Amino acid sequence: MGTKKLLPTSISTMTIFLCMFTHINAEEAFPFVDGTYPSEAEGPTAESSDMDELELNPGPPPRVVDVDDYRERADDDDHTEAFLQAWKEACNSSDYPSVLLVPEGKTYLLMPVSFNGPCRATTITATIRGTLEAPSNRSVWLDRDLQEWITFDNIDHLRVVGGGTINGNGHEWWINSCKTNQSMQCVSAGNLQALYFRRCNHLVVEGLQIIDSMQMHVVIAYSWRVLVSRLLIAAPGWSPNTDGIHVSNSREVLISGCIISTGDDCISIVTGSMFVRATGIFCGPGHGISIGSLGANKSWAHVSDVLVEKATLVGTTNGVRIKTWQGGDGYAERITFQDISMHNVTNPVIIDQNYCDSKTPCHEQGSAVAINNIRYRNIRGTSSSKIAINFVCSNSVHCDGIVMQDVSLVGEGTYVSCSYMNARVVELGYNFPYCRAEM
Ligand SMILES: *[C@@H]1O[C@H](CO)[C@@H](O)[C@H](O)[C@H]1NC(C)=O
Ligand SMILES: *[C@@H]1O[C@H](CO)[C@@H](O)[C@H](O)[C@H]1NC(C)=O
Ligand SMILES: *[C@@H]1O[C@H](CO)[C@@H](O)[C@H](O)[C@H]1NC(C)=O
Ligand SMILES: *[C@@H]1O[C@H](CO)[C@@H](O)[C@H](O)[C@H]1NC(C)=O
Ligand SMILES: *[C@@H]1O[C@H](CO)[C@@H](O)[C@H](O)[C@H]1NC(C)=O
């Protein structure tokens, strides 16, 4: 930051990260970590000295760029070009903060579009008050082999806020998926993403409704210092692959106060992600909160230092899950799930090292993504299946250092048990069902 003015955005983001890493007991938040950062990352301690130098002078008012001022004709039904022109202006017209305004009470149709940096503006706030809508015609993507709808790429200090709605109009995708209709061809290997943030450092995404995505709703990739908060994410429980928030290759990500109801994972955290915290999450329907899947196609994967806390899961197929494919390599470690309430969840606590989301069966392999130092603490509620706790670990690489502390799960009218293979489990406090420590 140096002598540059610190802007209100960075102050709030920074405060959150300071809270995240210093006000909570680092030992508790990230067990097995002594609270220090890897030396290559500039941790909050590196920035905390800047706090003393804060200039609270608000500076010049931000430049406000209204997308409506860039519409050629009021009756145009495709607004993509207007948004791109407005973005150019907000991004590069000055060295000051700028605001890209999407006015309230209107609906804007956007084709697949990418808002790119780097920008001259010190911060950009995209204030979305109205509704952004995607075309329902799938050929818009299929013909061009595209994977994203709205992309923000390589932008520092971006905030996307405003209380508006982002509607992916995904119905055509869901009914034509090979997962909902066996006679359909599976079209793409990757997942389509409604709102895609790539290489955005110091990013805030806050207070929006994101609904009916074709597939994934919000994706955070290759980004650092990210706050995702107060999002309402919704798609039908039967819609395939509609993950809520997907984090990949990103560090220091805080997801807070989100309500997520979709047809796939509410939150999924995949390879390259470190220091991720999710707090105050409501999830259901959906597939729960997942680390993974990791290690598909014999890939190397690494996820570490994840804290999932204060979550409520209702009627989901999984509660808190770690899933890895056979044949992969790498590790998932120092992951804590705590203060979680489950209501009628099918697999409340699950580690699946034999994950196989493929039409053809997965054969036994000689390697696996290692799973170490996983802590479950104060997890309570009900299971709709008999196996409330299920650790399916690999024959080749056993799960190590699983700690259960005050985990109490009962059946919806049935007696529940813990099932485990190839796992070393340590029990602390009062746990039910009980998993006997073994290897
Ligand atoms: C803004 O300016 C930078 C540097 O000149 C350039 O790389 C970038 O493409 C510009 N962005 C837009 C949206 O015009
Ligand atoms: C979708 O777009 C394709 C080509 O862009 C067009 O041929 C087709 O008629 C459109 N379908 C619908 C339902 O509008
Ligand atoms: C599945 O797709 C086929 C066309 O490929 C269609 O005829 C059929 O009605 C679809 N089934 C359902 C349940 O939507
Ligand atoms: C694995 O690779 C195959 C062939 O390249 C591809 O079809 C499949 O989608 C990949 N699976 C995953 C989960 O990436
Ligand atoms: C619990 O979940 C099961 C299956 O997920 C469902 O069939 C059942 O109706 C649910 N029970 C309640 C009380 O919601």
UniProtKB/TrEMBL annotation:
Family matches, as InterPro entries: Glyco_hydro_28, PbH1, Pectin_lyas_fold, Pectin_lyase_fold/virulence
Active site per database record: 287
Main location: secreted
Keyword Secreted: yes
Chain spans, region Disordered: 35-65
Molecular function as annotated in GO: polygalacturonase activity
Pfam families: Glyco_hydro_28
GO BP: carbohydrate metabolic process; cell wall organization
Annotated localization: Secreted, Cell wall
Protein keywords: Cell wall, Cell wall biogenesis/degradation, Glycosidase, Hydrolase, Secreted, Signal
Signal peptide segment: 1-26
PANTHER family hit by this protein: PTHR31375
Stated family: Belongs to the glycosyl hydrolase 28 family.
Protein name: Pectate lyase superfamily protein domain-containing protein
